[in-house]
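Discussion board: Methods & Data

I've been asked by a reviewer to show the raw model output for two of the constructs in my manuscript, not just the figures. I'm not sure how much to include, so I'm pasting the format here to get opinions. Each protein appears as its amino acid sequence followed by a line of discrete structure tokens. Is this the kind of thing reviewers expect to see in a supplement, or should I convert it first? Here is construct A:
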Amino acid sequence: MRLITGKPALDDLFLPNFCRVRMVLALVVIAQLLAFVLALGPYGNADRWNDLSVISLFIQWTALTSGALLCVSRPLLSKLDNAHAATLSYILLLAVTVIMSETVYRLLQSSFFGMVLSGQWHRDFLLHNLGISAVVSAVALRYFYVQHQWKKNLESEAVARIQALQARIRPHFLFNSMNTIASLTRSQPHIAEATVQNLADLFRASLSDVRNKIPLSTELELTKKYLEIEKLRLGDRLTVDWDVDNAPQAALLPALTIQPLVENAIYHGIEPLPEGGTIAIKSYLDKGLIHIVISNPLAEGGAPTRTQGHKIGLDNVRQRLEAYYGAQGRLSVETNQDATPLRHIVHLSFPCSVK
């Protein structure tokens, strides 16, 4: 677990990473929009409109130089608290504006252009650019800070939900597991020992760092360990149909994403049925997304008999996917009316990523 030292780590800096291509493209677009605003600002000034290309060139070079400087300075800024990082960033942005303005002024005065500019023009040009830079930089830094705080609050809320989900080990499962182990201790000690190991692995996963992702193969192995424990209790009432070879086993996902859904399938689908049933678990890759489909039989009536707990479990997993993957992390629920008995189907999907 990372210790909190009072200063932000590299990923905790409120400024976005201007070394990324996406941020560079965003910077170019925003700079060009600002150039249009400045060109259209003095209404009726045809010269300013005709000089749009010059304005765009100056603003683009200033913006890209500022972005490059913030990119290079990121390791230094990350060592400061956000207040000092913002102050230093603001000074750097204003310094870039002054340097670029002076460069343009000297260039226009050079023999190549041969322009004769007065000292008053120089001062007005510098103060004009510096004033615009001061306002735009302040607004941009404020926006980045607010966005950063919003993301941190969202992440904190997501972590709290994940921790709550990981801590949510149903008492009935723990008690049933302990009773199963106790009954096997004398008659089948080797199975009892394996069950203890499986239970320990599940608890270890539930207590791991919630921000870490694990390979799909590891999550499926945890799910299998859980099912092995439940199989000892339910016997022939529980069968599992595995079809999980069509997705990359190295794909990463949050720990305990599939296991709670399988636990729901047993608790709300298999246990209420005297004859039990089959849980089908399927995974596949389609258009860069990993798809996991879990289905279980439903008791007569076509709805889970323990509705509230069922909804809480599904909502927790859905919120975790949204917290990690945004709109690309989805979970949907449906009932297959054509199956006999009716089957409850949970379909989750998330982007395929590997280490």
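Construct B, same format:
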Amino acid sequence: MLKRTLSFLLLIAVPVTMLAQSGNLFIIGGGNRGPQLMKTMLDVAKLSPSDYIVVLPMASEEPDSAFFYMKKSLEGINLNPIYCLRFDSGDAPKARLDSLAKARLIFISGGDQSRFMKSIKHNSVATIIRQAYENGATIAGTSAGAAVMSEQMITGNELLGKAGYNATFKKVVKGNIEFEPGLGLLKNAIVDQHFIVRSRYNRLISALAEYPDKLCIGIDEATAIIVKPGNKIYVTGEAQVVTLSKPQKAGVTDKGLIYADEIRMSIYVAGQEIRSGN
């Protein structure tokens, strides 16, 4: 049985490495994006009157709807222009890439994170997003748009047993979780979304077992983490953020069962800082 260490403001001795950057990340766990959460996102972005927002809806099966609802969520609280930019896996027009590069707030919609990464596989969109981040832009995303922030991105697919996408993993076994390359804006952290609502503890424990040196962050719906320069991570929104890290005496049985004597677990609420370690 796993021993758990719970705290509400715990010093996590796992450094969260990001790209060299002067921008921010605003990572939403999915679900409702109420006016207060969106206002906080705009406050973080600190847009000037001449700045604009770009929505990247390629994770969604219905990208036009994804853009419509994102734009609707900003009604009444935003005066800056909002543009939808869609890219596929082929070469992207230079004018569209230039527009993306100059955006001060880039928002990645929900849907399927693998679909999003496939859409930018053979163009320079990922590079431009990273450069915009390094140059001070805010990169935001919800649900699938949260998952893509990690370097090792959880796809949602199980590889063993009832293989394929499953909202909640039934087992905690070695080799069951699938990863693909994400944007890599967070180097030493793995993000999971819809976390408490969908009971994704088994999935995040599986991720930690594969990458025990990383901070695994589960963000619930209507909740976000704000990653600021200097490895400062704060929680905002209506629910909680769970972190798992530092498994002790961990291993795998000959049947593939994951075990650990202890996993450091913390639960955070709005206004608290996730201390990512000295």
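Answer (T.O., handling editor elsewhere):
This is acceptable in a supplement if you add a one-line summary per construct. For B, something like: Residues 22 and 230 are 9 Å apart (CA to CA).
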